[in-house]
Amino acid sequence: MKKWMLLMVFAVGVMEIGWGQVDSAAIKEVDSLLQVSRTLTGQRNYDKALEVIAIAEKLALEKLGRESVAYGKCCNSLGTMYANKGNHLEAEKWFLESKAIREKVLGKEHPDYAMTMNNLANVFVAMGKFEKAEPLYLEVIVIQAKVLGKEHRNYAWTLNNLAGLYLKMGEFASAESLYYEAKAIQEKVLGKEHPDYAQSLNNLAILYRNMGNYEKAEPLYLEANAIREKALGKEHPDYAQSLNNLAGLYRKMGKYEKAEPLYLQAKAIREKALGREHPYYAASLNNLANLYRDMGHYEKSELLHLEAKPIYEKALGKEHPDYAESLNNLASLYGEIGNYEKAEPLFLEAEAIRQKVLGKQHPDYATNLNDLAILYGEIGNYEKAELLYRELSKLNQSLITKAVHHLSERELNNYLHTFSEAQAQTLSLAQITTANKSDISQTCYDNTLFYKGFLLNALNKIKYLAQSDAASTEKFNLLKSCERRLVREYTKPIAERDSVSVVNLETQSNELQKDLARSVAGYAEAVRQVRWQDVQKALKPDEVAVEFVHYRYHGKIPTDSTFYAALLLRSGWEQPHFVLLFEEKELFKYSSC
């Protein structure tokens, strides 16, 4: 046994003696039970692992006491289990308990204390509490650098975790630097054939994919994939996940011929390793079905979606977000091939599930509104389509307005792409229904004002005004934290949200915005959204307001046509008027004359 291991055993023994709870057999039994729980965790049998940890916890309390090293281990293991199950509030409770015990018994420079701090920080990241996670990671890095050294694998993992936090915060430069530092350590300490080194490569690939730098992401995914193949074998679920990630990148790049064999291989591995009733196998079916839809192989896509749907239903139930996604994907396929009778009830069922389970502020609910609106537009039910686009526009504007407070400029620009697609679909409906005196032009005008006026200037202006003094900066940073945590809560199913926390965060956010509006000159004007009625009130009788727009046309028949139009408004009109101007290709026709 190495010297440091002997010292660790001696230190634990001394600590137990110091607290007057010597029971070597109990210590060994607790450790043995926790080892069994780790084995079960590796098999993803989390419920059974929790049962084993509960036995260990009871034994530790009865034989060793609440302030024993063994009980601290049990608390840490319980936190890990609940984190794996997605119950982050319960995980936070147990990690805090473990942290308090280990701080008191082992001290703040012990590796086990640092481990619990790291685990707690991971939970805060999962909960969207980035401002709580960052100082914990930084403290862990200091402890590990001092106790373990800067070439230890645990130190490298913490760098990876902190980089992942910065990636979520949109601080790509900081994330990239830390990822490379972690990668260098793992390469030196573990070698270039270790799964941990492959994970660092995978993390860098995710960073570059999120930055839109697919050329840098691809070789990293390929190298990580090759390492996992050699280290874990071609039948390991983690290798299947690596294949799945690479296939997803190729699908995003439009390289369908490369994505297909990878998806098929991942599906085969999951079928053998996990069985045909596992949600991961259903996910492979779903991913492959979506790829086939992109490729126009509709029959293949339908068969795979129909196979995935009952697996999700049996494994997860009919009120799970993944089941709703399965319904929505199948409905999208039917809509694309014109089978609207099958598509509509599936879209409606998916919408009802998402509304109940996720709520009306969730991005997936917005996706359902969008898909249903497209469907109703294609079948000529313009009244229903207009109502859905109106609701979708309000939801999108609400989501984006909140995002302004906490996203980086690059992240916000990426997010706006979804909004611009919805605007193009709304303008297309206005083009179709313009002769019917539709109300959709009101939504189009408000969207245009929002996109051109509010968003183009809001981000930088709000940040500039909020940093006018130290007190305002502190309030703005608190507002960013609130909005970020609210967004994180809204992305969870309703049953998993901390309802008290949501109410408190919404109240705090509203109060902070009001406070900033009162105390910072120009802030209220910067965040105010102008509507078409506001523009109309400012017009004189002989004036007309014109908003020019261009958009890719969305109709029943797929097209890549781009149109230009004008939204006109006068003081006496009941609503704005939509006027189609010309198709973009007409510009090129005249320019060549």
Describe the structure concisely for a colleague:
By secondary structure, the chain is mostly helical. The chain is built from 26 helices and three strands. 76% of the residues lie in helices and 4% in strands.
Structural account:
It is a single chain. The chain is mainly alpha-helical. It is 76% helix and 4% strand. Strands 1-2-3 form a three-stranded antiparallel beta sheet. β2 and β3 form a beta hairpin. α2 runs antiparallel to α3 and α7 packs antiparallel against α8. The longest helix is centred in the C-terminal third of the chain and has 27 residues. The protein is globular and about 90 Å long. The N terminus is likely disordered.
Essential attributes:
593 residues; mainly alpha; 3-stranded antiparallel beta sheet; 3 strands; globular
Cα gyration radius (Å): 28 Å
Pairing-aware structural class of the strands and helices?
Answer: mainly alpha
Biggest sheet character: 3 strands, antiparallel
Proportion of residues in extended strands = under 5%
> Share of helix among residues?
over 70%
Number of strands: 3
Q: Which ranges are low-confidence, i.e. pLDDT below 50, for 5 or more consecutive residues?
A: 1-21
Task: Sketch the topology as an H/E string, one letter per element.
Answer: HHHHHHHHHHHHHHHHHHHHHHHHHEEEH
Molecular shape: globular
Trace the largest sheet across and list its strands.
1-2-3
Give the overall average pLDDT: 83
Q: Tally the helices: what do you get?
A: 26
Distance between the termini: 86 Å
